Amino acid sequence: MLAHELSHALADQNFNLSKFIRQGRKSDDGSAARLAVMEGQATWLMSEYVARKMGQSLKTSPELAAAMGSVSEAGGQYPIFQNAPLYLRMTLVFPYTKGMLFQNAVTERDGNEGFAEVFRHPPVSTQQILHPERYFSSVKPSQPAVPEPHLPRGYKSLVGGTMGELDHAILIEQFAGKQAAAEIAPHWRGSTFELREDRQAGRVALLYAVEWDSEEMARRYFAFYKDALRKKGKNVVFRTEEADAASGSSDDGRFELRRNGGMVTSVEGLAP
Question: Which residue segment(s) compose the domain that 44 sits in?
Answer without folding.
Answer: 2-136
